[in-house]
Design a protein that fits this description.
By secondary structure, this protein is of the alpha/beta class. It is built from 13 helices and twelve strands.
Length: 312
């Protein structure tokens, strides 16, 4: 079978797959998958997350032999799952490869926001030590942290927050009872938002979570609360967030609505406005970018392909 690898991991992954699957044709294509670089006779494709391109009928039409898509990512909102089901195309992802990396980043971003580290770092870089009182921050110990989404990533965030002296509450439509045994308390979304000092979003982007933090949700939050988003950008309504920043302490976003524009080099007015707000810190979707996570991703892709490729 012919396996085509797209994205930045293509070249480094190619040698590993050729060694593991010598009976199959493995090739790499530079760049993320678009309509312009489809491979007509590809039978399996391995793709990185690309918020600017949805794998939908217009791309699938150009790969008539396609039997499977392997998403080298946790989320799969960039793939039209229903269209793939209709065509009999199997879709697999790597659900756990980056869980620890993203959870650790979430904690780092909480501290970044609570201690104003972006502003302090800029001052330090300018050797501006004139008035460190302006960087008075907030301690995490004793605060209430609401984790929205307790899948693989959210569960780890909860487990990492508890030893830091936080009260951890959570919201998810599927409750993880092992977390409850460790001290996490599940609540309705509005109740969790109303008591949280920090809200951490780790939810996937599906119909029911789109703009889960909008104007009404922000109105329920405490004055001085903060937000960290390591899930998907469109979990938050950017305009509503901007309007709420007068009451909030910080918003630290590793993912942001409109990220697809940024990937393609466009900078919309709303994103520019948000990025320039002094209470907002943006990082360019780096949650999964650790050496360990990338090694786990390769291992998981190999495991998935073992189940998809015939051995003889």
């Amino acid at each position: 079978m012919k396996v085509v690898l797209y994205g930045q991991m293509g070249r480094q992954l190619e040698d590993v797959l050729k060694a593991n699957f010598p009976l199959h044709a493995i090739e790499s294509v530079d760049g993320l998958l678009t309509e312009a670089n489809t491979v007509h006779d590809a039978e399996i494709i391995v793709i990185k997350y690309n918020p600017s391109v949805k794998i939908s009928s217009s791309i699938l039409d150009k790969m008539p032999k396609l039997k499977a898509i392997v998403a080298a990512s946790t989320g799969m909102d960039h793939v039209d799952i229903e269209e793939c089901k209709r065509r009999g195309i199997t879709v697999k992802n790597c659900p756990t490869y980056a869980a620890n990396a993203v959870a650790e980043l979430a904690l780092a971003l909480v501290f970044f926001g609570m201690r104003g580290l972006a502003q302090a770092s800029r001052a330090g870089g300018l050797l501006d030590y004139s008035n460190n009182a302006r960087f008075s921050g907030i301690e995490l110990q004793g605060k209430t942290c609401a984790v929205l989404g307790t899948g693989n990533i959210g569960a780890l965030v909860c487990e990492k927050m508890l030893p830091l002296g936080c009260t951890v509450v959570a919201y998810d439509i599927v409750e993880n009872h092992s977390l409850e045994q460790k001290g996490v308390r599940y609540m309705k979304l509005n109740d969790a938002l109303s008591i949280a000092d920090v809200v951490i979003l780790t939810l996937p982007l599906v119909k029911g979570t789109y703009h889960i933090l909008g104007g009404e949700a922000f109105s329920l939050m405490k004055d001085g609360a903060g937000i960290v988003n390591v899930g998907r950008g469109a979990l938050i309504d950017n305009a509503a967030l901007y309007n709420a920043l007068g009451r909030l302490s910080f918003a630290v976003l590793d993912v942001v609505e409109g990220e697809d524009e940024l990937v393609s080099g466009k900078k919309g007015a709303q994103l520019i406005k948000l990025s320039q707000h002094p209470k907002v810190i943006l990082t360019p979707h780096i949650g999964a970018r650790t050496r360990e996570a990338e090694n786990r991703m390769v291992e998981q892709i190999v495991g998935i392909l073992r189940g998809l490729l015939p051995s003889a």
